[in-house]
Amino acid sequence: MKDNNLSTETSLYLLQHAENPVHWQPWSDAALDFAKEENKLLLVSIGYSSCHWCHVMEKESFEDREVAAFMNKHFVNVKVDREERPDVDQLYMSAIQLMGVQGGWPLNCILLPDGRPIYGGTYFKKEKWLEVLKALVETSRKQPDRVEEFGKEIQGHLQDASYEQIKDYDALNLGTMKKWISKLKSTFDTEFGGYAFVPKFPLPNHLEFLLDFGSQEQDETIELHIRRTLFAMGNGGIYDHVEGGFSRYSTDALWKVPHFEKMLYDNAQLIGLYSKAAMHSNSNSDCEYYGTIVYETFEYLKRNLKTKFGPYLCSQDADSEGAEGVYYCWRNNEIKKILKTDFHWVKDFFGIYEDEVWENDLFILQRKQALIDVAKKQNWTIAEAKEHLSRVKNILFLQRGKRTRPVIDTKSLTSWNALLINGLIQAYLAFNNKEYLIEAGDLASWIVEKQLDEKGALKRNYVDGVSSIDGFLDDYANTIQSFIYLYQVQGDLSYLHHAKRMTAFVFSEFYSETQKLFFYTQKDAKLIARKIDIDDDVIPSSNSVMAHNLYELGVYFRKDEWLEKSQEMLGKLKGLISKYPSGYLNWMALYFRILKGTKELHVLTTHKPNRAELLILLRKRIVISYHREIPMTKGYSEKGIFFCENNTCLPRIESIEALLKQI
């Protein structure tokens, strides 16, 4: 392995390093076997194509011949795309956190030849990187027993995933939920929304649960917090006011200065979040605002990330022309020149003031005024103000099109496209745009036709028509969830059968009998430890999503063991939720749902619920069945609509309209 062997890989991130003088290898059994044969340390460097600091470290170190010569002589060097191989990333991210290092990317970890980690960090400048590598080589040579013992200790900690063992579950109660909510409220940023710490990430699954809870419990504090957060994000620099779409996070409390890469998983979930906010809102102006965000974000995704094969690509880079954010930002004189007489009102609307400059005389556009205020000041009608704003955005869009565009990743991921299915379904329900529903169905068809086999096994990645990596738990969890949702909205029974088959496969390949949770990797994974994903971060944990899925599928297929498993999984997390509620909001959503009781609707007529009716039914988290073939509904022989809640059923109902009046 004396050459760089990345040129035939499908990952854009790996291909970006294919010309490095470092003899990079993809993650493989062959690379690990070679390290054992040569008795060399493994150097594993993990990142992704739109990662700014990954590019910086590549330029400073991995393109440097002095650094490359040392790495090639003393290490077997492995490059990993964290999005293709999140299992490897999770494992070694956990390892460096055990070593007291704050996680991030690039993630650089030094391993013993068998894969046990002995050192790790994130970004290093060239001089520090060489210093670290030389020290590790020297320590490994002079104190092999010490290094071996440390690797063994870290491996032991990585394998110790013993979550709280609870045999007798406390009864679910609203008091416990309100304690968790009270803790959460103490972390809110009451001025700019989100949590009161930086950097600030949009956390759609957190906000979706709070939206549901605040609405059902009529909690005005939470409802105000959600609205404040959604407007602050949508008005801030984290949102692209020219092309649509959100950047990954904000480096400040004001949502002003983003880390400029755009990720599919963020935008997919934020489409759903803003749509759900519109469903909950009684304000026409708020709904219109949310609808604009959803429409523009979807247009950005279609224009930039949609492939000819159907699925969407992962991300767009933060960098272009060798710098971060230059594609997205503007100079005062540039905008003044291209907008001419419009500049006088645009500078107020987008905050182009001297004290708002970011760096290098660049401005990040932010929405500083409400459109109605602009209209009043310019003596326009609202319709005229919208026309002028649309015209200005188009001028800026065309001008930006003359710049060098940031690179777009070349792979699609099953998990992230499944998140987009969910977001688009919510957008359809909120705004009655059938394009959203059609696109969701098309993405589901791609998964069924290209990523799913007859056994219920999924592939994770898709590049130019090729899928090469087996799915991980998030691929299954998010796909199952999206298929359940599609069944409820479209009534196509095949979605539920696919969901059931995938769930059975997940039990056979991912379930831990010891922990009573699911591993992130299949049982044939060749890693030093199998991780269990439980934290609800920017994306909800795969275990929390599976627990929700088991609850719904348990109802549909009358599988008591799946219902019990869902509650057992939740029970194992209760202690952690009580300690750190901000890390487990999708688990809290399940707790709240079970607490509120099971609601079942059997629609056995030719008149299915229309969109407006579905919106209400699904907001109430009602499990909807349209088929007698489903065990939940097989006992009903006559036509009609039947509603049951907590094992108590109403008499037959003639229409959904009549049902909604009763409930």
Could you describe the 3D structure shown?
The chain has 663 residues and is α+β, with helices and mostly antiparallel strands. It has 4 domains: 12-159, Glutaredoxin (3-Layer(aba) Sandwich), CATH 3.40.30; 174-320 and 409-596, Glycosyltransferase, CATH 1.50.10; 328-400, no CATH class; 599-662. Helices cover 51% and strands 10% of the residues. The chain has 25 helices and 21 strands. The strands form 8 sheets. A 5-stranded mixed β-sheet has the order 1-3-2-4-5. β6 (249-250) and β7 (258-259) form a beta hairpin. The protein starts with 11 loop residues before the first helix and ends with a helix.
Record the strand order, biggest sheet: 1-3-2-4-5
Q: What is the global morphology?
A: globular
Compute the gyration radius: what is it?
A: 26 Å
**Intertermini distance:** 68 Å
* Total number of helices: 25
Number of domains: 4
What would CATH call the architecture of the largest domain? Alpha/alpha barrel
The largest β sheet comes out as: 5 strands, mixed
Beta-strand share of residues = 5-15%
